[in-house]
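Blinded run. Sample ID left blank on purpose so nobody reads anything into the name before looking at the predicted structure. Input follows.
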Amino acid sequence: MHINRRVGAVATAALLLSSSYGLAAEINPARGTWDSGWFDTEVYIAALRELGHSVNEPITLDDAVRYQALSQRDADFSVMEWFPLFNDRFAMFDNLEMVGYVIRGGALEGYLVDKKTADEYGITSLADFADPEISALFDRNGDGIADMVACPPGWDCGLVIDHHITEFGLEEHIDLITAAYDPAMADAIAAYEAGEPILFYTWTPNWVLGELVPDKDVVWLEVPYSSLPEGQSEFEGHTAIEGVIGCANDPCEMGFPANDIRPVGNSAFLDENPDVYRLFEVMEIPLDAVGEQNVRMKEGENSAEDVRRHAQEWIAANRELFDGWIEEAKGALEQ
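Blinded prediction complete.
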């Protein structure tokens, strides 16, 4: 799911207005526009409420608006922040802090094709698409060039994808589909089910790889060598990931470094709430739990009420772990 910048700006303005009506003391969560991280947000909100805080419903903002809102204290925190993907955006503000980890090192990104076509034509690398015959196999609109589901406008992953397309000389061989991600992937999955080749970008955790299972339905593609845009160039040489199921090699040169998903909060908010700071330090959600919940969303349990229920069900099934986080956070108030 994706909302445009104008809608995000309106939402931010609404938050500003609400603070003038005496709601400033309440906690305002922000979240990204990709719904694969909304479950995480609900688990964190539930923990904050368990600590006794009044927490408003999360506001959905695209990347640029979200970071501006966090800096201006129009929102207090977000737990959907990918690093190093968002390094440049984070560095623009000196009053934000990363605290703890939602998912440590398990957030992967990369390119995939359907396994049937990959096996038949020996496709293992994005560089294989420089061959016009390979590229034409994945043509979806009749122009003879491969079509790849990529990132919607405004998503930072698009910066890396654009860099790879240019760096590896694929401008004339791959067209990027930059429409809203979920509908674009649903269309690609329908094409796959009809027996057509597909090429796409995705990330983990995400519902997509619950529908298209690596090494069964799809395979990961390597890139020719590690190359990243300027803001992430320090991570070149760190994009070969070990143990990637469905890749031709191990380690797999995926072209993207493994990301940490981390909470980011406004520094003043964190200073005012040491229990929240400690909570963010100790909380961490298993990657598998997020992946399983994302599949449930794809199967139709995708309303706001469904996502909150999923969070509550996970908490109930992991109550001892959850209570341990709460006790740690409460202890910060006693110091």
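Unblinding after everyone has recorded impressions. The domain at 109-253 is CATH 3.40.190.100 (D-Maltodextrin-Binding Protein; domain 2).
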